[in-house]
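Duplicate of #3305? Posting structure anyway:
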């Protein structure tokens, strides 16, 4: 699941122009660079929760605003750091026992840890949601310029 989500995200981020990276469909909407920054921050939090057993910010503890503010809006650097954190997370997850995963999930999510192994899949689900958001932004960007969408389902249940 993690490998599939990562490959889909990488595919969704291929061949981006600088304009497309920063484009917003509305002034209050997220741009792709903002989403990648968000994913980078959260990937580090997931890694820290799995690797050293710390509580998950925004869920079990308050978000460290000073640390968040220190992460610049630099698409290339954030994508690089996201990949490093995500890859490390998956490597550690592969080597983690179910008992340790259960313990780290409880530490990460506190009272929200009703799902015993949530730490093992939460990041992939979160990233998949934002991957869909990025694809939608890219399709809207192209549509606004009279170009065909780049992400069209190849599935007979969708009309042509």
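Output from current build:
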């Amino acid at each position: 699941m993690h490998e599939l989500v990562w490959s889909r995200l990488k595919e969704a981020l291929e061949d981006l122009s600088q304009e497309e990276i920063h484009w917003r469909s509305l002034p209050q909407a997220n741009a792709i660079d903002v989403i990648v920054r968000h994913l980078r921050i959260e990937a580090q939090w997931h890694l820290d929760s799995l690797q050293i057993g710390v509580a998950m910010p925004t869920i079990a503890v308050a978000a460290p605003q000073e640390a968040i503010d220190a992460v610049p809006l630099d698409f290339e650097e954030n994508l690089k750091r996201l990949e490093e954190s995500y890859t490390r997370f998956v490597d550690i997850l592969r080597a983690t026992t179910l008992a340790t995963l259960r313990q780290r999930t409880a530490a990460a999510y506190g009272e929200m840890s009703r799902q015993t192994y949530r730490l093992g899949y939460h990041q992939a689900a979160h990233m998949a949601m934002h991957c869909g958001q990025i694809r939608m932004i890219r399709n809207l960007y192209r549509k606004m310029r009279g170009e065909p969408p780049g992400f069209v389902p190849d599935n007979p249940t969708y009309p042509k």
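Confirmed duplicate; merging threads. The CA atoms of residues 41 and 67 lie 9 Å apart. The first helix runs from residue 2 to 12.
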